[in-house]
Amino acid sequence: MTENKLPSLRGLPSVRQLRAFVAVYQSGHISAAADMLSVTQPAVTVLLREMEERLGVRLFDRSTRALRRTEAAAEAYGHAMRTLAELESLGRSMVDFSAGRKGRLRIAATSTVAQTLLPSILREYTALHPDVHLLIDDCAPGEFVERIMSERVDCGIGTLETPIPGLEEQVFRHDPLVAVAQARFFASDRPLTWKQLGAFPIITVKAGYGVRRRIERAASEACVALRVEHEVSLLTTALALASGGLGVAVVPGSIVGAASSEGLVTRRILRPLVERNTAFIYKRERTLPPTAASLQELLLKRLKG
């Protein structure tokens, strides 16, 4: 029993041959098909003959006056139209994919960034790219780098305390640390120094977290011992405790605007001015998918703005 084998690619018509066949089939004349395709009549004739040779059938009966479609041509026409439509659809889809308008985007972000900064970014992004499917991996700070390095995500939005080999960091936001508390804690609306901050019960993240290390370095530079009375895992929790009157939260300024901070007032902290940078982060040797590259472009535009 002989097995039916699929024809090799050499036995299949090319796209140019299919287009020439469809044009001749629809118009009934070589000259009209040549005009439709903006090629010469001999070129159409050659393409048609090549297609017949590849398929092993005659598609048109030729006379001196006209072409007459064969039964094979009627059968081939439907296949040719579907094939060309699929190829056009593929081309449009790939254009959208390469422009980052279509596909999937996986983003790692610490829980605080996911709750505060990320919503406004993604609202702007989805308005520009509504067909991109977003997957947000909101993780603990200690898991953030691993998510990107292991390629479980395409990119991350967050902070690197020190440069990490293999990771590229593009800062798009410089965020100064501020003091946040009920109004009764502050005697005036003037900025505070780190020395003055030493008089208050402080609410901040646990030791080892990025913001905490910045706070400790600033206090050391100002030669002040801070009274850290409440330690938390999330910056939004620090704000909640400050709202309850338990002390002064030291957090990045963007957290205050993005999280619920009703009844709280904010004071800048100077001498020294301390900032936490937020960046678009991705694995260096890995090509960014177009969806991630379009997010990168959006964030860098925000920085320039």
Automatic annotation (TrEMBL):
It comes from the Bacteria. GO terms for cellular component: cytosol. It holds the Pfam family HTH_1. Residues 13-70 form the HTH lysR-type domain. SUPFAM superfamilies: Periplasmic binding protein-like II (SSF53850), Winged helix' DNA-binding domain (SSF46785). Keywords: DNA-binding, Transcription, Transcription regulation. InterPro entries: HTH-type_LysR_regulators, LysR_HTH_N, LysR_subst-bd, WH-like_DNA-bd_sf, WH_DNA-bd_sf. The keyword Transmembrane does not apply. One of its GO terms (molecular function) is DNA-binding transcription factor activity. Belongs to the LysR transcriptional regulatory family. This is LysR family transcriptional regulator. It comes from Diaphorobacter ruginosibacter. The lineage of its organism: Bacteria, Pseudomonadati, Pseudomonadota, Betaproteobacteria, Burkholderiales.
